[in-house]
């Protein structure tokens, strides 16, 4: 099964919108939105690459920002269009994160890459997606890149579901280092911070934040979903107070790398 076929099968039957609507799912969504909003300004232009069904694109378009979106899976595009309100300044087209040739250089103030790095299986594809995203971003613009992290999956899935021996036998988990591998059959590519650093290093950009967008949330889903409103708000405050701690972000299931594209010419003033 190739990557496109595997992803199509998955997203045709998976409700991505619902994942971000539960109390535990909202933690990732609200954290991401909070950091994007730090860098928004009137008339900022936004590109979302791999927009899925449009949860983020619609959110910012409904705030009045002009949003262009790109998505690979036709089923997701259909839902994106169904969810578009008549007055939203948003567009959607089909395409691949590794080829943004339909977009010009240096156009967007905010570029969101919140899904594609989950599903790119070769180093070349990962590099190409990042290079394309930075190319279409303006100098001084901000790039938000989401990753799925390896060690939380080893803890919750490999050990939590007693799959560790099976995964080692399939050579998907290294028995010494516990590094993970993925194929299109597993759908999701998992990262450690060291690989994210290596991918970011060649880009003409500087890192502003590295954030655990859900931190310990996914370990306690049922508990968080059952919290009353006041306790949940307190949990969000706690989460936001720790989500950039370098000693803790590796335990987050999802992370967000926030980069600023360097200016075309050094500023020596």
Describe this structure in words.
- The protein is 39% helix and 20% strand.
- It is an alpha/beta fold.
- The longest helix is centred in the N-terminal third of the chain and has 15 residues, at 23-37.
- The model has no long low-confidence stretch (mean pLDDT 92).
Intertermini distance: 55 Å
Determine the fraction of residues in helical runs and give it as a percent range.
25-40%
Query: How can the largest sheet be summarized?
Result: 8 strands, mixed
Helix/strand structural class: alpha/beta
How many distinct beta strands? 8
Shape: globular
Element order, helices and strands? HHHEHEHEEHEHHEHEHHE
- Output the radius of gyration: 18 Å
Short description:
The chain is an alpha/beta fold. The protein has helices at about 5-15, 15-20, 25-35, 55-60, 75-80, 125-135, 150-160, 165-170, 195-200, 220-225, 230-240; strands at about 45-50, 65-70, 90-95, 110-115, 135-150, 190, 205-210, 255-260.
Give structural attributes.
alpha/beta; 269 residues; 11 helices
List the helices and strands and how they pair.
Layout: H1 3-13, H2 16-19, H3 23-37, E1 45-49, H4 55-62, E2 66-71, H5 74-82, E3 90-94, E4 108-113, H6 123-136, E5 137-149, H7 150-159, H8 164-169, E6 190-191, H9 193-200, E7 205-212, H10 221-225, H11 229-242, E8 254-261
């Amino acid at each position: 099964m190739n990557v496109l076929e595997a992803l199509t099968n998955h997203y045709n039957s998976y409700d991505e919108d619902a994942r971000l609507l539960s109390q535990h799912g909202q933690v990732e969504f609200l954290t991401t939105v909070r950091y994007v909003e730090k860098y928004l300004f009137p008339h900022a232009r936004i590109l979302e690459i791999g927009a899925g069904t449009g949860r983020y694109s619609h959110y910012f378009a409904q705030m009045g920002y002009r949003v262009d979106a790109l998505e690979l899976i036709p089923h997701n595009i259909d839902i994106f269009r169904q969810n578009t309100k008549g007055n939203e300044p948003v567009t959607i087209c089909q395409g691949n994160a590794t080829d943004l040739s339909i977009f010009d250089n240096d156009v967007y103030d905010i570029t969101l890459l919140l899904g594609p790095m989950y599903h790119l299986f070769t180093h070349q594809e990962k590099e190409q997606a990042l290079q394309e995203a930075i190319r279409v971003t303006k100098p001084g613009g901000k790039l938000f890149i989401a990753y799925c992290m390896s060690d939380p999956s080893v803890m919750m899935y490999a050990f939590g579901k007693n799959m560790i021996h099976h995964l080692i036998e399939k050579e998907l988990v290294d028995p010494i280092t516990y590094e993970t591998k993925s194929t299109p059959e597993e759908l999701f590519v998992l990262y450690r911070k060291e690989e994210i650093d290596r991918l970011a290093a060649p880009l003409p950009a500087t890192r502003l934040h590295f954030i655990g967008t859900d931190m310990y949330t996914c370990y306690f889903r049922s508990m968080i979903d059952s919290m009353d409103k006041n306790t949940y708000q307190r949990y969000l405050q706690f989460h936001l107070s720790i989500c950039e701690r370098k000693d803790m972000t590796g335990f987050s299931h999802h992370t967000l790398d926030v980069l600023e594209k360097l200016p075309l010419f050094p500023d020596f003033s």
